[in-house]
Specification:
The structure is a homotetramer. By secondary structure, chain A is α/β, with parallel strands linked by helices. Chain A has helices at about 15-20, 35-50, 60-70, 85-90, 95, 115-125, 150-160, 175, 185-190, 220-230, 235-245, 250-270, 290-300, 325-340; strands at about 1-5, 55-60, 75-80, 100-105, 130-140, 165-170, 195-200, 210-215, 285, 290, 300-305, 305-310, 315-320. Chain A starts with a strand and ends with a helix.
Chain lengths: ~350, ~350, ~350, ~350
């Protein structure tokens, strides 16, 4: 059965594995102090047009989120998130486990706006309540939507005006940046946020998220935070090698573009067949709505996750494509859908 | 310059990489629910002769320590460790960051004894002090020493009598179990401890520590703990594949045996040349004592870590061998040492 | 200006102060191991008809909440609360600071129901999300409403069925139990919850909340929790003496009854004058809705807190009465309101 | 039986109680925003000759320690303490529960020195270890010793040079400042430390510790910390009234002077009878060494705590005097001791 369950069902792009193999018997300095990591960081700095950034490559996304957030906040400070935000729902309370409240705002399409952040600020007025200090957004979001440059600029301006840190979770940054409706670059993001990361795990690396810190006051002693949370990989060059490959010759963008292209084929076919979507996504996650009967049939040939119930007889499912999604897999799905009519 | 800095300077055994390559484009279930991990767990259960154990493979050692300890303790409970224990010194307060005090006992050779644990119990008598509840030991220890079966049996008996959990950090388990003076098996360790782990990172895997929980009450909901601490690897089968290889055809033991053999060559040569050691190690870490002058000469040809100052003109250094240490590298060191006479 | 700001604007009932004075120069055992505390606990046990309960008297409410909750939960477990719950809004993230997520459910009248708790359970399905384990309710609630016996029985049954702890914050327990519509007793509450507390601070003690633990598994080593959170009062007998007085000769109920009676006079006058209320309260907190203009006039003669804006020209304010509220103060307010017509 | 168990066996000085009684029915603003607290803070500022200090009065000592320390440190930072320090031994891991390691240094007389702090700094060299950032000292110490001006100046200079915060626990500040060998004033302490507190609980208040923050960067948003840890007393004026009395007409010093005078009588008599002491204390805690037989006899007439075993037949006990210790109680003890000869 072909799987559209997620974008981390396969390993890594062959070029990445090849590079890891070639370096296998070289003696490297541990804990990300090696030359591969140094080179990867240089490549990323160039890509984001920001040579003053501090960059740390960390194994996983939840880890990166909890480290970045707990490094930035004092004990009584909170992070504002869309209620659909990964940190609010899918990290088993990882942020709270570091002592901080997540202030969840209802954002119908998964994106925070200055108005929603203002609402959180208005509510928290004194020392009997937590103090909002960071705004957490995802791009693309957990439901496939994404920020435009105008939107991110507005949010950035608002955060700076109110002395809030703006943090972008980029676990699916590649999908956002190569979406047909995107008008942001990594350089824009580096300029408009205080800290963000570029996801490798969901875009063709074995694992690895490159955390970029541009705000000066968030940089200090960051490696202590990484080590304390158990996230300093002994063989850190494995992370460095992967990001060297991702940011050489556009591999990062090429893989994401492929994932989006595969999603587009699915989206077009579904639309053509008259299906609607729970969320409006132009990235690699689609949320088509089917009748329970159709879902049952689909589940006999494909694997995917349920998203949520829409009415008594219909639910949205989640289809995810990736760098590794094959044209055959997509064609099979499209033909199956067409055959249902 | 040849490096004796640590046992994680190279990547992984070629057989491990080969297996990862072969599985690269297969679609796997995420988060360690895949068949490779299932198979690896079966292999380990067989090796430890304990089919009721719960086994979780986790990326790194500090991560594994902090998860296992914070999962077992109530907020006011503490873990007893030798003062040289990894959790006490080299984890940036990772255990304290989960809320728990580490009670450090001075153990000259890095090993805890019932008498040392008793001392901690005697001191902590009421609710104004933390409550000791877990005993943390390492095998081999951070200074290369190891537990005999008799010693571990005594400690295990003592812990059960006093309702203390016994946790063994096995980051260097391979080195301990293949040391010439070892009389323990993994089955003994599974029987005598409540929770322990088998280290992959320092014994020829890219990364990965297999945590084995034998005590019933420590098993519940453990995957929640892993996820909350950011330690649930999306592509968890990467861990599974590595431990499949480690526990097929004795690769785990063979690699550790090689590391110990290389250390033996160094130890014999050093002894023959009249050098003494800061600690008595029969595993892959050696702590020879040299004059400052000799250390300076060595440092021009080899890399290694300083351990501690012994007197005004002498220090102990740390030499570590691994599965990847070459006979050439060792020979070069031996010849250099002999040439100093 | 007479204050209706809260129920802790004055000190303590004179009988309580008298008892404290009388004991002032006696040498007492510290840390709540004294005879006054012992006696107070006996009186409470008798009142709740439960001699197996463990009872600890703690200085303040936020303290009691954070200790009771963090003592009961494992790191990945969460507590369900109405979104208006004190722990969710007015404790500066005290629960999150102990590592636990508060799952806030929208409950229009501040009370949780089995259906609302079920909703939280349905959403949290696996180890990628926190595990709901405790249900937190307040009686009376933060908005003056209260639980009936039928409602509490239903919630209790539901919690036991789903192995959830039921915790009642009784900071305003007196107001709830002496409300004209109440049909619960402390004995009922002891029977239907797992842990609850009886508030002294807001009902005529200088300070003090008596935490009652009836669930066996929540009792163990509780004094360690109290001490660790900095809540073990050196001169603990001060707490004991106050609860001795509260539970001798019905002082606890008499004071709460007075507070409710004073609120009734206000409620009747406001209703008679045609004002409506933001919440339906029969206890000592009232939330009348006034025009901005009226509020401005009131604020020149009385102090009170704003609650929330109802529309463009009206807001709800909060009026709180207490054991110490004088008939003169109430009469003055009533006359002022009547004079506005 | 007369008790020398501690300095918090009785209530409060009658003048303090009288002031509380007089204010009992006044309506006060809650949460320490009242005029009594304001006045107390002014009195303290005058006493310490520092009008820029931020002052917060908090119920208890462990609470004050954990709030002050966790407010100052980032997650990976640690506090250095003498191994006998209250935070290291007698607070049930309260500091670790906020996430921070206590680095315990062996200080034979309970006092830290620049050399001991340097030792801690030397050991903690990189991000694999915690980062020492605060130095915690007590005056008088847990074993009755105290700092001279020269010593405190040296420690202060050292801390500023190494960018370490210096925090003085003054639970027994009164005893230190009125000891015959003292040459420090509160103004000196305000000048030489970054944050310290003046203990009320152990010097004739019902409860209350006045925390003084002089270092600018430690002041921000401190009330959020107090509230989050459950330490913001609803009826905060109770704290204010007590410190008003303590710092009006020298009551604070007079009570401490009495405690020390009573200890002097005991010390002189014990010395005269040939007994020696485990620690050299000129404050209100004495640690005389007796044979087990003598201790048994003493225990039939007086209550006190055991300190530690000195040899097979002798132990040190702890005798504590207070503002409330009576001359009769002391005379009785002296006569008993003399009668043993």
């Amino acid at each position: 059965m072909y799987s559209f369950t997620n974008d981390y069902s396969e390993g890594a792009h062959p070029r990445i594995l090849k590079a890891m193999l070639e370096a296998n018997l070289t003696q490297n300095t541990g804990y990300s102090l090696d030359t591969h990591t140094g080179h990867a960081i240089e490549l990323i700095k160039k890509e984001i047009c920001c040579h003053e950034a501090d960059i740390h490559i960390i194994v996983g996304g939840t880890q990166t989120n909890l480290i970045a957030i707990s490094a930035a906040l004092r004990p009584f400070q909170a992070v504002i998130s869309a209620s659909t935000g990964h940190i609010n729902v899918h990290e088993t309370g990882a942020i709270e486990a570091t002592g901080h409240k997540v202030l969840a705002m209802t954002a119908p399409d998964g994106r925070l706006t200055p108005a929603l952040v203002q609402e959180a600020l208005d509510f928290h007025t004194d020392e009997h309540m937590v103090q909002p200090k960071m705004v957490y957004i995802s791009n693309s979001t957990e439901i496939g939507t994404q920020y435009t440059k105008t939107e991110l600029e507005a949010l950035s301006r608002f955060c700076r005006l109110h002395d809030l840190y703006l943090f972008m979770d980029g676990a699916r940054m590649g999908a956002a940046l190569t979406s047909p409706v995107n008008d942001l670059t990594l350089a824009d993001i580096a300029r408009l946020t205080d800290v963000f990361y570029i996801g490798g795990t969901k875009n063709g690396a074995l694992f690895g998220e490159a955390l970029v810190i541009t705000r000066e006051e968030l940089k200090a002693d960051f490696r202590f935070m990484i080590k304390q949370r158990g996230a300093m990989l002994a063989k850190g060059w494995l992370l460095g090698i992967q990001f060297e490959e991702l940011f050489q010759n556009d591999l990062f963008y090429d893989m994401a573009r492929h994932a989006n292209a595969m999603a587009s084929v699915l989206r077009d076919a579904l639309t053509e067949c008259g299906y609607s979507f729970a969320y409006d996504s132009m990235t690699n996650q689609l949320f088509p709505i089917f009748s329970d009967e159709t879902i049952e049939k689909l589940a006999q040939h494909f694997t995917f996750n349920m998203d949520r119930r829409m009415d008594e007889t219909h639910s949205a499912i989640r289809l995810v494509t990736s760098w590794a999604t094959t044209e055959e897999g997509v064609r099979e799905f499209v033909e199956f859908i067409r055959g249902l009519r």
